[in-house]
Write a structure and sequence with these properties.
This protein has 313 residues and is α/β, with parallel strands linked by helices. The protein folds into 2 domains: 123 residues; 183 residues, no CATH class. The protein is 54% helix and 9% strand. The protein contains 11 helices and 6 strands. The strands form 2 sheets. The chain has a 4-stranded mixed β-sheet. Strands 1-6 form a two-stranded parallel ribbon. A hairpin with a 2-residue loop joins strand 2 and strand 3. Helix 2 packs antiparallel against helix 5 and helix 7 runs parallel beside helix 10. The longest helix has 22 residues. It starts with a helix and ends with a strand.
């Protein structure tokens, strides 16, 4: 449950006043709150300092990740757990003062306070772009799969999010845009096909292209409707979705009439083609793909955290 309105407002004021929103400050808030859960309130700020009084006691990657693990969060918030962040001691003292004040007023529910900071950690992760690491030692298919895996991890940590499906749709859109240009119409991932009058995510001549991370019966019915309308359905899905889609198509009696592609292969093949199979060309094609993807996200989505940053390894 969310914290009581008075406590939630106090937490918002604290975070806003002292800019407790970056990874180092959030690490401090989590460690101090967990200390309060273990040892009770009020706290003595001196007890949270190391012997040389130069760092916050217990502040490190292991401690922070252990707290996050309690909430099924596996991503690393900070490699040093905020230990080397400037201002960590000052932030610790502010958090202690806040908790003690709440305790004095009788509103210090440390479970709710910790959950509130966890929600801010999720906001922090969600605000960061995904990272495509151009590791030349890896296959292009593996690089694309890693990118989609990042989106799937974010979904697991933020129930209700649909990052992976959105990313897949817009990567497919970017790939088609690079190949075909302005004739490709792109839409927000939340825009359903039927109400908008579309036969698929993308309709290119007589080809109806569907993208999904979880193929199901409804999609097979849509593919069958495509066939009845004289269209050629193409399905792009994640690795685990390929056998599922093929099995459902077999049950529907249309297995030999639709093409099912694994997303990594579908996109990697395009990168090789656009890059003319040359090392420099592949890098440029990846840059062009991500630029086209980000353009689509900017135009069709409201969450900047869906953007992708290209990084070299």
């Amino acid at each position: 449950m969310p914290p009581a309105p008075e406590l939630a407002q106090a937490l918002q004021d604290l975070a806003r006043s002292y800019r407790i929103r970056d990874k180092g400050a959030l690490c401090v808030a989590l460690v101090v709150t967990r200390h309060a859960k273990k040892h009770g309130l009020p706290l003595d700020p001196a007890s949270l300092l190391t012997e040389n009084r130069g760092q916050v006691k217990g502040l490190g990657k292991g401690a922070v990740q252990a707290i996050l693990a309690d909430y099924a969060i596996t991503r690393t918030l900070a490699e040093e757990g905020g230990r080397t962040s400037r201002g960590s001691i000052a932030n610790m003292e502010r958090c202690v003062s806040f908790l003690n004040a709440c305790h004095q007023r009788g509103v210090a529910d440390v479970d709710e306070i910790e959950a509130w900071w966890i929600a801010r950690v999720k906001d922090y992760f969600a605000s960061k772009p995904f990272v495509l690491r151009h590791d030349v030692a890896k296959s292009l298919r593996a690089i694309i799969r890693d990118l989609l895996a990042q989106a799937q991890t974010r979904e697991r940590e933020s129930p209700g999010a649909t990052c992976a499906g959105t990313m897949l749709q817009h990567l497919v859109g970017a790939r088609l845009t690079l190949a075909l240009g302005a004739q490709v119409q792109t839409h927000g991932a939340s825009v359903a096909d039927t109400p908008s009058g579309r036969d698929a995510d993308f309709l290119i001549h007589d080809t109806a292209i569907h993208s999904t991370t979880a193929p199901g019966e409804a999609l097979m019915r849509k593919c069958a409707a495509n066939l009845d309308a004289g269209l050629r359905p193409v399905l792009v899905t994640v690795e685990k979705g390929v056998p599922v889609a093929e099995g459902l198509a077999e049950q529907k009696g249309i297995a030999d009439r639709i093409d099912v592609f694994e997303a990594g292969q579908f996109i990697a093949a395009s990168v090789y083609d656009l890059g003319r199979f040359a090392p420099g060309g592949r890098r440029q094609a990846l840059e062009d793909l991500i630029a086209a993807y980000n353009t689509i996200v900017d135009a069709c989505e409201t969450d900047p955290g869906l953007r992708i940053q290209l990084a070299a390894c």
